[in-house]
Model the fold of this input.
Amino acid sequence: MRRYLRLYVNFLRFSFSRALHFRVDFLFRIFMDIIYYAVQLGFFVVIYRHTSLLAGWSLDQARIFICAYFVVDAIHMTVISNNMWWLPILINNGDLDYYLVRPVSSLFFVSFRDFAANSFMNLVLATGLLGWALSLYAGELSIGRLLAFIALLLTGCTIFYALRVISIVPIFWLQSTHGTHDLFYGLVNFAERPDRIFTGWLRRALVTVLPFCLIASFPTRILFEGLRPTIVLHVTVIALLSLLVMVAFWRLGLRAYSSASS
Amino acid sequence: MRGRLFLHILSLEARTAMSYRVAFWANAAVSVVVGITIPYFLWSSIYEHVYETTGRVRIGGYTLEAMLLYYVAAALLSKVVRGPDMALGISDEIYEGKLSRFLIYPAPYLRFKYAQHLGAILPFVVQMVVFVAIATPLLELPQDFQVSAGSIARAAIFVLAANLLYFLISWPLQAIAFWADNVWSIAVLLRLASGFLGGGMLPLSLFPAWAQKLLLLTPFPYLFYVPVNTFLGKSTPADWLHGLFVLGIWAVLLLGLGTAVWKRGELRYTGVGI
Done:
């Protein structure tokens, strides 16, 4: 464990040093995410001009939900996204070899080696927005609920990460991520809306086999509905299952890895 | 640039865009299904609540069926207006020094890129025709909309003009690559802002009246909101002409801005990549 932590600290050092070479990109990324946050918040503000509740939530509650999603998204952009961008290239060019021969988990290495320092500011911004949204909420928010909310939000990040890796692994067989990449980013849109708007078989799918609704919506429900053990258990079990599937799928993919470029 | 060369570049780009056919159709199916499914559940939930609490069946002038049809039309038309993400590639060509090879091409750079841009949207036009052909027998047209051969023809012209407008908005933004090292985030930014302010995410009639008035002075509503409403027969021929006029003014202004930015940028270009 200590070896992995030391390795990660080195990843951070290199990433910050690289980010400082691209200062304008650094600013553009911050600006891009500010616009993204403004658009999403604006979307809910416009909707609530015409309704008092959406899936049982007031504007204040929906604001907390969407800001919680911003935090998950920012963590993904900062910690995972760059690595997931490079992963298909490493596999297709046969460059994965360098990671397979290292004395650490190859999945850990390819998932976390590039920390997007230029997205880090957005993580700070998203966390600030979540704090702002929580401060506007007039209802009761106990420390216990807040801690459970944060813990489940981090579990949501794990689900996001597992789903992202699962969406990339087919490249071992397909040589292209065009289809799966679009599929993943299409499905991620479901995570940006409250889970209670979905009904029937789609809802069942979104809280089990395609658990996008567990990423931010379920954690937010804990804040308003109290510490419900069913929700905590549900999110935790699905997160663990997602990780297991991810690791199994990754190992299966490695067996198909030919090391030659394609 | 001669017409034949323009058409050749256009056709080459269209064939490139179609080279990954499975991925192309998978992407089309996912984006259309997701683009319709989420609004369906979102607005069903909202209309149900609004009806229960106020008895109203219209929001922003749309019934639920009309609202959903708006999203279907917006999902299909916006792809044709926007084309694939990062299709222009102008910033990459500047950044990597590849712009130099265009100096020996027998065609002005801007027209070359526009031919590529048009070629890249051709597959989306095919997608749109296929999806409309599939959906038409399945969907019942709400009374709010009067889709006719005339409205479809007017919308087709408007969409072509909107596509040019989107290209002209993107051009000066891509040219920022003469000064900056990596500008892909600006393309994402334009996509986000235009989707929200142009009616791709929500019909603009849901916005406050003052915001609608303000937005109609910007180029964004002419990218999605106006073409979609033209297609659905919600606007009169006079509205259509007025829309085209405003769009034309914006196109001229953006062409002027793009040319000025480009000329300044070219002075900085070294041809070896940044």
User: Anything to note?
Assistant: The interface with chain B takes residues 22, 24-25, 28-29, 31-32, 35-36, 39, 42-43, 46-47, 49-55, 176, 178-179, 182-183, 186-187, 189-190, 193, 196-199, 202 of chain A (CB under 8 Å). The longest helix of chain A spans residues 59-93. Chain A has twelve helices and no strands.
